[in-house]
Amino acid sequence: MTAGAAERTPSLLETLPGRFYCDPAVFAQEQERIFETLWCCAVRAADLDRPGAFRTVQVGRENVLVVRTREGALRAFLNVCRHRGARVCAEESGTVRRTLQCPYHAWTYDLEGRLVAAPNLARMPDVDREERGLLRVALREWLGYAWVCLAEEPPSFEDTVVGAATERLGDPAAVERYRAAELALGRRISYDVRANWKLIVENFMECYHCATIHPELTHVLPEFAKGFAAQYYVGHGAEFARGAQGFTVDGGAGFGRLAGLADAQDRRYYAITVKPQVFVNLVPDHVIVHRMFPLAVDRTVVECDWLYAPEVVASGADVSRSVELFHRVNVQDFEACERTQPAMDSRAYRRGGVLVPSEHHIRAFHEWVLTCLKPHMSEV
Ligand code: FES
Ligand code: FE
Which residues belong to any copy of the Rieske domain (predicted)? Predict the structure, then answer.
């Protein structure tokens, strides 16, 4: 077959061109226009369980420090010392006693980010303590997570996070009934995926691949085997297979239904996506939250939390069979993404690939990305 356009049907939808998945210039624009502009889900609030507990995460090109204050609030700052720019907290997580002290020259900040001490500070009248505190980052809490936004003027959290996540659920209150903020962490797995973040989103958006690579998932959710479902947003609640007792790797029983769920939510799987980097899966006895952290054009760390009723975790119950189901799905999905990444700069993919009808909604994601980048497309 020639590469000519004669074979192309006018209605055929194509993906973004290959370079959108492998060109560092495109990635730099995405970091600035998407990850440094929108709300990103950064840290599970309960991980910071005492004053001074902190966690650092990469958001766009910035390293962000989230810390629990003495009053019990969460604050987020750019993890950059205002003296000469060293990272204040070099570790990914930890607990400080009262202050955050830069390891370079010992400038010291309180948990509200104020500069409170520095060697010889009294002899440096030009250094304005108020002015030289850590730079604050906007922070909101929802679903038990701290969401941060690097924009000077963050977009409405209610519209772009809560509203966008719930608008297509048959029942917009359905998410709240899982009371994710009150659940306990049963397992966390971090996946270092050698693929562009958009490949991961696109994979999650379609279920054309489910019959091929997800035998355990389609066993529990037969609807997904047909290939028409969209894995990323299942607002209607996909019904469990008749023989499945729970959302586990072998369809065996899980745990008791979470308190507060409506009968209609029993034996059903819901999935919601919050652009740009969060996927939430809701099943009767647990909630799975994925947070993506794109680190390079071809590398994305995905942190996945399995959350259960506090009494389930406190009892020491074995959660491994329910963790194993979505862990396998993750491994299967991420392997598929890693299999496509090396071809993104092939001449065979210069114009991109094809979106079959059950993937047409991915076009809306591409249009969203292009809209975010549009004013700056000439730079990429
Ligand atoms: Fe932080 Fe000097 S760079 S104290
Ligand atoms: Fe999948």
Answer: 41-148
Q: If you measure from the C-alpha of residue 135 to the centroid of ligand 1, how many angstroms do you get, rounded to a whole number?
A: 14
**118 CA: nearest ligand 1 atom:** 4
In this prediction the pTM is 0.93
Give the CATH number of domain 39-154; options: 3.40.50.1970, 3.60.40.10, 2.102.10.10, 2.60.120.260: 2.102.10.10
Alpha-carbon distance 12 to 335, whole Å? 27
Q: What separation in Å is there between the alpha carbon of 195 and the centre of ligand 2?
A: 15
What is this model's ipTM? 0.97
Question: What are 2-33's pLDDT values in tens digits?
Answer: 444 444 444 689 999 999 999 999 999 999 99
Q: In this structure, what DSSP letter does residue 84 have?
A: T
Report pLDDT digits (tens) over 316-348. 999 999 999 999 999 999 999 999 999 999 999
- Mutation to probe ligand 1, out of 77, 80, 88, 102 (largest number of atoms < 8 A from CB): 102
Please give the full DSSP string across 162-174, using - where no structure is assigned.
IIHHHTTSSSTTH
